[in-house]
Amino acid sequence: MEIHEILESVKEGKISTNHAKKLLSLYSIEEVEGFVKIDFNRRKRRGIPEVIFAETKELDEIKKITKRTLEKTNSVIVSRIKKSDYPKILAFAKRLKVKIKTGKNSSSLLLYNKPIKFQGGKVGIMTAGTSDIGVAEEARLMCEAMNCKCITSYDVGVAGIQRVFPILKEMVNEEVDCIIVAAGMEGALATLVSTLVDIPIIGIPTSVGYGYGEKGIAALASMLQSCSLGLSVVNIDNGIAAGGIAANIANRAIKKNNLK
Predict the structure, then answer these.
(1) How far apart are CA 110 and CA 79, in angstroms?
(2) For 50-71, how does the pLDDT look when each residue is reduced to its tens digit (9 = 90+)?
(3) What pLDDT is stored for residue 184 in this prediction?
(4) Are residues 78 and 30 in the same domain?
């Protein structure tokens, strides 16, 4: 429906104001200088904030999109910033006087105006090795942008399998709604975790490994072929997607619980 049709339908009593609000939210797209169309209402419609994939964008483009987004919404994630652009984006964010969350070993940033209230669900995040931390931190930033509390534990892979049990016990006791597992090499940690708990698991295969099956191919194939049910898998190194899915699951769970 076009906007005038929506308004006429409300006037004639054919649709409710709440239904009209949902339909109108689909039109909240703004073009910036002819090179980008920003979906400002994505957060309201899907619960997911705007994410700028910076790796393939020019510095000036990133700045313009960031500034316009933060004028209309509370937060934005700038992901995969080029090494040469990272300090410049940080300095730019400080000039905008917005708050900044960084990720360890990650070139992604969460920028926001008002303090983020962790009123959503809980997400557990773990990595097999230290090389997987950057990807896991991208997932954490995404979850926190979506108001989720995160419980993290890194370097708990199957090479020292005893390390995983204390943190898994903590996550179960904390009643996390979803667990993200980032793992390279053969990606075995995701399967292991999914066999031990009745919690949705999201595996992130990371581009860590040697020779045959390197760059995350072996980890991806292993996770996709897992015989353990309850494990879903995102693309190689895609912490942003894993965080968005996990936070949606967690926030949906907390919303259902609050309605009881």
Answers:
(1) 8
(2) 899 999 999 999 998 898 888 8
(3) 92
(4) yes
Number of folded domains that form the chain: 2
Residue where a domain stops, chosen among 84, 112, 140? 112
Assess if residue 183 is contained within a domain.
yes
- Residue 37 in tokens: 């169309």
Are residue 100 and residue 142 in the same domain, yes or no?
no
pLDDT reported for residue 33:
65
Please check whether residue 117 lies inside any domain of the structure. Answer: no
pLDDT beneath 70, residues of the chain: 1-4, 23-37, 40-41, 44, 256, 258-260
Instruction: Give the span between the Cα atoms of 244 and 139, in whole angstroms.
Output: 8
Residues 143 and 248 in one domain: yes
The pLDDT of residue 4 = 65
- DSSP annotation of 132 reads G
Q: Is the dihedral of CA 143, 154, 196, 151 positive or negative?
A: negative
CA distance 214 to 211: 5
H/E run at residue 235 = none
Instruction: Estimate the crossing angle of helix 239-259 against helix 133-145, to 10 degrees.
Output: 40
Q: Which amino acid is at 177?
A: D
pLDDT of 7: 77
Tokens of 115: 């303090």
Angle between helices 188-196 and 164-173 (to 10 degrees): 50
The reply to whether 249 and 163 lie within a common domain is yes
Tell me, what's the pLDDT at 24? 66
Task: Provide the residue count of the chain.
Answer: 260
User: Is 29 inside any structural domain?
Assistant: yes
What is the per-residue pLDDT for 38? 73
Among 78, 112, 146, the domain boundary falls at 112
